[in-house]
Amino acid sequence: MTPLDYLHAHEQDILDALIAFVQLPSVSTDPAYREGIARAAQWAAEQIRLAGPFDVEIIPTAGHPLVYGEWLGAPGKPTVIVYGHYDVQPPEPLDKWQTPPFAPEVREGRLYGRGVSDDKGPMLIPIKVAQAFFETRGGLPINVRFLFEGEEEVGSAHLETFIRDNPMRLAADFVLSADGAMWRIDEPSITVACRGMVGLEFALTTAAKDLHSGRYGGGINNALHAMAALVASLHAPDGRVAVTGFYDAVEAVSPDERAAMTTLGFDEMAWLAQIGGQAAFGEPGYTTLERLWTRPTLEVNGMWGGYQGAGSKTVIPAEAYAKITCRLVPHQHPDDIAEKLIAHLEAHRPPGAQLSITRDGYGALPYRIDPTHMGLKVAEAALIDVYGKKPLYVRMGGTIPVSEFFKRRLNLDTVFFSFSTADEDFHAPNEFFRLHRLREGLEAWARYWERLSDV
Amino acid sequence: MTPLDYLHAHEQDILDALIAFVQLPSVSTDPAYREGIARAAQWAAEQIRLAGPFDVEIIPTAGHPLVYGEWLGAPGKPTVIVYGHYDVQPPEPLDKWQTPPFAPEVREGRLYGRGVSDDKGPMLIPIKVAQAFFETRGGLPINVRFLFEGEEEVGSAHLETFIRDNPMRLAADFVLSADGAMWRIDEPSITVACRGMVGLEFALTTAAKDLHSGRYGGGINNALHAMAALVASLHAPDGRVAVTGFYDAVEAVSPDERAAMTTLGFDEMAWLAQIGGQAAFGEPGYTTLERLWTRPTLEVNGMWGGYQGAGSKTVIPAEAYAKITCRLVPHQHPDDIAEKLIAHLEAHRPPGAQLSITRDGYGALPYRIDPTHMGLKVAEAALIDVYGKKPLYVRMGGTIPVSEFFKRRLNLDTVFFSFSTADEDFHAPNEFFRLHRLREGLEAWARYWERLSDV
To answer: Where are the domains of chain A?
Structure first.
């Protein structure tokens, strides 16, 4: 029996394991889910032990624990760090889920549940591939260090400390990431860049308490009016970010790369239809795909104040809140952008309002890999094996901070080799993972390790 | 024993009754409180029966019931409709209350609880005054029709229908309202005008679901950016309402009235200190008091969308919501202002966003009474009896729709004779009612009815 035969024969077991994994509510941003995080870390460690004779350790951090497992029994062969994360986004808004987020259900060839695509399905694949090699061959074709974290959705801060402090333990040729995503379902792709991130929250206060809109209306500023004006000031009406200096460090996209992106055949109408959007919108002078991949953004992720219940409440709200994150592109730095954002908010503070700003721990530099990297060539060959066609080289609008940490701290590049797809509603209700991607991913990872062994 | 002696001797009983009344959670705007509403209506009816031989009836409406009680045993004497309301505002935000909103507590001469000042304390006063007259004299000096409603906080719509359909049952000389408020604690005052009201809610949608801010950021408009821009467009930066035609019908305040308002000695710094405001703010060209009493306003009462939990969530919200109410001044009409608001929202709909608007049932015309009205003169005399000084004639920034209904449907004027005070945090957490106002109100109502009997 070959590893591929083994994987084929155990498809249902692997799906059952993924369902068990998704049932553990490992939301990293919210302290209410602390127990779900701990159980998911234990579960992942147990799965690695089950796969083969790995040295497995749950490594505590100042935040959520790391799960580490190494097998270095292939001397002379390459060593890869296999990265993934067991934490998930919050499930809210709960009322938009067709089935509960932590009660995964298969419908029409898809498994639905929070974290199923980001990143529990993709992360389980290399563990099960390792199991297939051990069960059929008694060993792996390469050396593997599994490194799974529980803080990807909140900026990977403690993973960075671990990487900085453990260079020997993480000696490797490169990082092979189970996180990331194929950009669309109909073509395999390889990601060669991702955006960075910086975030902050702010509050505006205009009085010590909410006030009766009759008694006080016309007398003082309403915190929601102040918030609307301040948030509106962050963008020009055409969609360009209006924060002074925001675009200063941004590298112009080369005519060659722009031309290459045009040939990818991005179908804007299909893309809009898929998300239920009315019209594409954003910074003028760029195509939608150029904006998604190569331009920085400033998004308000939450904004609120006043009465949100049924009916009306004639109140002048005294407090209003907003959460912001920016996606950064090469040469932008999170600290520099945070400073510029704060300067903008302070300069545009509305009359009669107090402003308080909290920077998120959350910060990540943007990342790029040389498109001729050996690890990418192996990925290309493995994808041709599975899909019968040459993969596209694409950028990613999202952020995987760990890739930049590995580069900066250990000079290791990251090859993204995920089998989630960009349309699978991660970070939104009804997240799903396509079951055929699970099968394809298992085959592709097995082929990757075998091909890498022969490089 | 005189009625005043009786009231003095029963102060503690009356306070206990008020506490029992406030314990009934009669929030009219939220269907979750339906039972609290029903219990409060029954309680009020019972209190009227307890006061004396009134014909009492709980009158169902398409909304919350009316409580009616009449005693017409003083032939030849004036007849007044005594108006009040047993419904209250929602208690949210609950975490801002020092003690629970429906567990009233006396602290430092004040009773704290939702609805204690608006309007349960003031409404209980005339019931207890009636009881004092029946217990000591066996009858009232005038004819009284109690009419208490359960929908004041949601626009009094079904009371208007009842007034329209029952002109004979409501035959009276004028309305004496236990709702309203003294404008400040250090001087008695009589209200001669109040503002009207119109409200609506709207939603903006930019996609069929919330989207990952990395994958989609830069591609489509964010519903919160759209909402901020749309809400910001409602006001000019200087605080003036920017809706076309909003001020068209507004009558200019006469130089005489402006001069009279100046002599009232409004202390802006003290007013700001009391509400914890940084600075007064609003339409230029008017003093703060002029804006509060004589100018219309547009206030956003609630605005929300996206993630509001702990930590961050990197999402592009697909939906955003806002609730608006306007306070109207003489000659503005709710329908006309609603049309202008809707036209503004549609004209400023941001790119890529769908707009849906719901008009609140909520609408009320502004109201004024002739300052020489006999009922006001009796009020002035009764207030001089109690306070030893001549009351101020003031306007009110708030809205009591019923006054305009009585005027339009039955040509009856409304005399406001409430003993709540404008600073008692109605519509906000920690609403309170001063216990000395309860004593003063009981005396003043008893004196009012006696003086009215002699007119």
So the answer is: 3-194+366-453, 199-250+296-364
Q: Say if residues B226 and B322 touch (Cβ distance below 8 Å).
A: no
pLDDT score at A263: 87
Q: Which of A30, A277, A422 sits opposite B310 (nearest CB)?
A: A30
Q: A3-194+366-453: which CATH architecture?
A: 3-Layer(aba) Sandwich (3.40)
- Contact residues, chain B, for A399 at CB < 8 Å: 214, 314
> Residue B173 carries which side chain, given as an amino acid letter?
D
Nearest CA in chain B to A399: B214
Note the pTM of the prediction, 2 decimals.
0.79
A325–B314 CB contact, under 8 Å: yes
Q: Is A225 on the interface with B (CB under 8 A)?
A: yes
Tokens of B191: 């209200």
d(CA A77, CA B35): 74
> Does ipTM surpass 0.85 in this model?
no
Q: Any chain B CB within 8 A of the CB of A271?
A: yes
Residue B72: helix, strand or coil by DSSP? coil
A335-338 contact pairs (CB < 8 A, 24+): A335/A198, A335/A363, A336/A249, A337/A198, A337/A246, A337/A296, A338/A198, A338/A200, A338/A363
Q: Does A302 sit within 8 Å of B307, measured CB to CB?
A: yes
pLDDT confidence of residue A312: 82
What average pLDDT does the segment B45-74 reach?
98
The predicted structure's pLDDT at residue B362: 62
Contacts with A63 from chain B: Cβ below 8 Å: none
Q: Which CATH number fits domain B196-249+296-363: 3.30.70.360, 3.40.50.720, 3.10.105.10, 3.30.70.20?
A: 3.30.70.360
Backbone angles phi and psi of B356, in degrees to 5: -130, 135
Span A154-200, pLDDT tens digits: 888 899 999 999 999 999 999 999 998 887 777 899 999 989 999 99
pLDDT tens-digit series, residues B362-412: 688 899 999 899 999 999 999 999 999 999 888 888 888 889 899 989 999
Q: What is the pLDDT of residue A366?
A: 92
Please answer yes or no on whether A211 and B314 come within 8 Å at the CB atom: no
Between positions 305 and 324 of B, the ones with CB within 8 A of A are 305-318, 320-323
Best residue in A153, A241, A286, A299 for a mutation probing chain B (most B CBs within 10 Å)? A299
Q: What top-level class would CATH report for the domain A199-250+296-364?
A: alpha beta
What pLDDT does residue B253 have? 87
- Taking CB atoms and an 8 Å limit, are A397 and B217 in contact across chains? yes
Tell me whether A347 touches chain B (CB under 8 Å). Answer: no
Q: Taking 80 as the threshold, does the pLDDT of residue A264 lie above it?
A: yes
Q: Which residues contact B67 (CB under 8 A, 6 or more apart)?
A: B41, B44, B45, B48, B56, B57, B58, B59, B86, B146, B147, B148, B149, B150
Number of other CB atoms surrounding residue A311 within 10 Å: 20
Q: d(Cα B426, Cα B142) in Å, to the nearest integer? A: 31
pLDDT-based confidence at residue A362 (cuts at 50, 70, 90): low
> Across the interface, do B219 and A318 touch by the CB < 8 Å criterion?
no
Q: Which residue is closest to A281 within chain B, CA to CA?
A: B220
- The answer to whether residues A201 and A360 touch, using CB atoms and an 8 Å cutoff, is yes
Whether residues B281 and A351 touch (CB distance < 8 A) is answered with yes
Set of chain A residues whose Cβ sits within 8 Å of the Cβ of B425: 209
